[in-house]
Fold this sequence. Notes:
The chain contains 21 helices and eleven strands.
Amino acid sequence: MTSNFNASTEALYQTIQRLPIVSPHGHCDPQWFAQNKAFKNPAELLVVPDHYVFRMLYSQGISLLNLGIGSGKKDADPREVFRTFAAHWYLFLGTPSRTWINYVLHETLQITLELSARTADAIYDQISEKIAQDDHLPRALFERFNIETLATTDAALDELDHHAAIKNSGWTGRIIPTFRPDGVLDPLDPRFVQNLQELEEMTGYDLGDYSGYLDAVRSRRAYFIKMGATATDHAIEVIHTEWLEHPDVLYQSIKLGDGTLEDARRFYGHMLIEMAQMSVDDGLTMQIHGGSRRNTNTKILIDSGRDMGADIPISVDWVHGLEALLNRVGHIASLTIVLFTLDETTYTRELAPMAGHWPCLRIGPPWWFHDSANGIARYLNQVVETAGYYNLAGFNDDTRAFMSIPARHDLWRRGVALHLAEQVEKGLFGRDHAEDLAQLLATDLARTVYRLGK
């Protein structure tokens, strides 16, 4: 990892290397585990689902449509897609993606060849042979990866049929949904009005007034909980919360699609507080991912659809943005809100002091652009002195790339061991405390924060 990964660091790493993987937030497809079919091909396994990979290729002029990616995709030969990826493998030098994929190839798939244009076909064939075997089916890999819990992220209107199929299959792997209600909370969602109509049909509640709307949302939360959910997830570009004394007035305008951009901002800010209050009642951990400007590439949005790697970090004001929410429910210790940021400047200035005060707040791990060896080091060095370790949320991989889950957790555990060994070397605490904290950061915090148990 680095020259600082010495004997003391290695010894700490060994205490947590083989602990179970707790993955409380991510975007894997539950259909994989419901149907337990072989992954289609190496391109679908390593390239197509991983926006870390295809955004890098796109940055060098490679068309997403030619990679078979997006809603407007062309029929793409998966072998050609993999060849393109392998020929441009050098682009990933210095990135965590290269670390993760090397881990997948060499540790998970036991492939000894080094990826390159010359070896692309041979590696493609070896991967194809591996994933056709029973011991490389999704459920077998889940068990081999020693995954204790894997949470997916699911829209509020999702019927959760795949989760039901998993529960009814008799398989004991723990795959749970996460309630992602932005499509029925955020008026800026392009399908918002249609989503409300579907919510009404799905729940049977009359959405003609605001109270019926809240009842419908509560009913979906209850169904998700019945299916195993322990958390909600919310994405917001500019952090804003606001308590509206008469939300029905704004709701009536917005549900008809007549509201302004300011109306939409205010309504979603109010609904985040409503979601926090519902979490007080039903116990779901609330996650807020802030500071990502979504879909900044208009051409990609038109040609390939949403969430195609064009989301870019922006600055965030957490203090003012969450003021209304925290002053309403932030003092309630039974409430847990996990904050994720792409704006690292807020770690020391805002998030650590906030989590070090408000009982409900926990700081999520480095996210997206900062989920790297250096990002992990920066995160721990900036938040711990003010927030401590127990106001963090452990680790989650936040990935659509199932094969990369062990690699991502391994990178985190190495970063934790390096950080803790440095703290011991500085004399801040002893080896016994370091070992306890290593397990806390590897598994125990995630279990506690997301109410997952063991």
